[in-house]
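Summary for the funding panel

The consortium committed to producing paired sequence-structure records for every protein in the target list. Below we show the first two records in order, beginning with the earlier of the two.
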Amino acid sequence: MSANLKYLSLGILVFQTTSLVLTMRYSRTLKEEGPRYLSSTAVVVAELLKIMACILLVYKDSKCSLRALNRVLHDEILNKPMETLKLAIPSGIYTLQNNLLYVALSNLDAATYQVTYQLKILTTALFSVSMLGKKLGVYQWLSLVILMTGVAFVQWPSDSQELDSKELSAGSQFVGLMAVLTACFSSGFAGVYFEKILKETKQSVWIRNIQLGFFGSIFGLMGVYIYDGELVSKNGFFQGYNRLTWIVVVLQCLFPWSHPCNNSYFFIRLRSQTCRKSH
C-alpha cells in the first residue's frame, strides 16, 4: 500500500504541475479585450483558497467538530507564535517564487520552462547536502548531472528559436530564464528549510501549510500594493479574471501540499527512496 500510494502521489503531482504550467502559460499569452489579470492578485487568491482547503482538512481530522478545530488552530498556531514565525521565511520565498513563475511563463514557452524548472531537483539536492548533511549515492549524482546536461541542451540556441523569438517579441527570453533560475534556487532552499522545520516539530503538514498561506497572503498583498496598487485602484482587484484564470488559481490550490517548495522536497525524497528500494 505504501509503495502504491507513493507512485499515486507522484502521478497526481505530475498531472497537477503539468496542467498548471500549460494553463498558466495559455492564460498569460491569450489575447482578449480589456485588461489582463494581475499575477500578483492571482497569487493572493490562491493562498487564501489554499488556507481554506487546509482548514477543511484539519476540520476532517478533528472528526468534523468545530470546537475541536478551533482548539487545534488555537493551540498549534496562536499559542506557538515562535513556531509560526519560522514559516515566514519560506513563505516569503514561496510568494516571490510564485510571482517569478508567472514572469517566466509570460516570457518562455511551456516546454522550455518545464524542463528548465526541473533544476529545482538539483538545487534541492545541493541544499540537502549542505544544510541537512545528507549523502547522495553515485546514481543520484549521475542523475543530477544528466538533468543539468538536458537543461543545457534545451537552452542551446537553434534556428527554430529565431522563429520562436518573433512570437515572444513582447517579452524577453532572458528575463524568463533568469526568473526560472531564481525560482529554482528559492525552491531548493525553501524546500529543505521546510523539511528541517517538519523534522523539528510534530505539527501536521496541514497546519504548516495554513501558516505558510497566512504569511504568503500578507506578503502577496504587500506585492499587490507596491507593484499593482494603481491598477487595482483603477480597475479592481479581480480585473481581467475569467474562467481560465480561475482554473489556474484552483490548480494552484487544488493540492494544499503542492507548494513549489514542497514539490522539490517531495521529488528529492522520492528519488532517494526509489534508489534505496524502500519507503
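The next record, for a separate protein in the list, is shown here:
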Amino acid sequence: MSKPVEEAIAQPTAVAAPKKKQPYPFWLGGVAATIAASITHPLDLTKVRMQATGDKGMINSLRKTVRTAGVRGLFDGITGTWLRQMTYSICRFWAYDESKKLLGATEKSPAWELALAGCMAGGIAGFVGNPGEIMMVRLQGDFAKPPEKRLNYKNSIDGLIRMVREEGWSSLSRGVGPNVFRAVLMNASQLASYDFFKAELLKTGAFDDNIYLHTTASFAAGTVATTVCSPADVIKSRIMTASGGESKSAMQMLRTSFKNEGAMFMFKGWVPAWMRLQPTTMLIFITLEQLKRLVDYTRGDL
C-alpha cells in the first residue's frame, strides 16, 4: 500500500461543524401581532368602547356599533391598531428576547425569572408604543361619542399630526404612566406565563410541541393576562379617550370612577377583553411560528 493511501486511511475524516442558526428578524413578532390584532379588532373595539363610554354589555355594544355605523364600523380605528402593533408589539417581542438573554433565561426558567424579563420588556415597549396606543384608543372610541365631541381623525397619522398641532407634543405622553404599568403587567403575565405554561405542559408528557400545546398554553396565559391587566387597562382607556379639558390624572380618574361606579369598574370590558386576548394570543404565536418557518425556508434551513 502506498504511503499517501496509508496516510489517508490513518487520518480521521473531518466532521463539518453544525451550521449556527442565525437569529430571526426582530420585527417578526410585530408582524404576527399586527395580523392577529387585525382579525380580532372588532372585539378590541368593543372592549375600549365599554371601558371608555359606558356601553352596557358586549353584545349590546356590538349591536350599537353595527346599528350606527354598519358592519364596517366594527373596524373603526384599524389604522390605530396597526400603528400600535408595529411600534409596541415589535418592541415588546424584541425586548423580551433581549431581556431573557440578559438574564440567561430560557422557556424552562423559573416563573419569576420569565416574569422579570417580561416586566423589563413591558417597561420599554409601553413607553415607545404610547403614541400608537393613544391613537388606537381615540380612533376606536370616536364614533361612540356624540357628534359634537368627536375628534374625526382621518387615520392614525392624521391623528398624530393633529394631536401635536392642537394639544402640543406633551399630548403624546398622555396616559404613559398607566400604559407602561399595563405593558409591564401584560408582558409579565402573557409572554412569561405562556413560556411557563408551555414548559409545564411539556413536562406532563401529554403534549408535544405542536398547535395543541400552543393553544392550551395560550388559553391559560390569556386568562391570566386579561385578569391581571384589566384595572390598568380600564384606567388607561379612560385617560387616553379624554382630550383637552377633559384630561385627568390617573389618580383623579381612579377616585372619580371608584366613587361613581364602585371597585368593579376596574373589570369593565373583561369578557370582550378575554375573548379578544384568547384568539389573539393563539394567532400571534401560530403566525409567529409560521413566519419563522418561512424565514428558515428562504435561508435554506428546512
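Regarding this second record: The radius of gyration is 23 Å. DSSP finds twelve helices and no strands in the chain.
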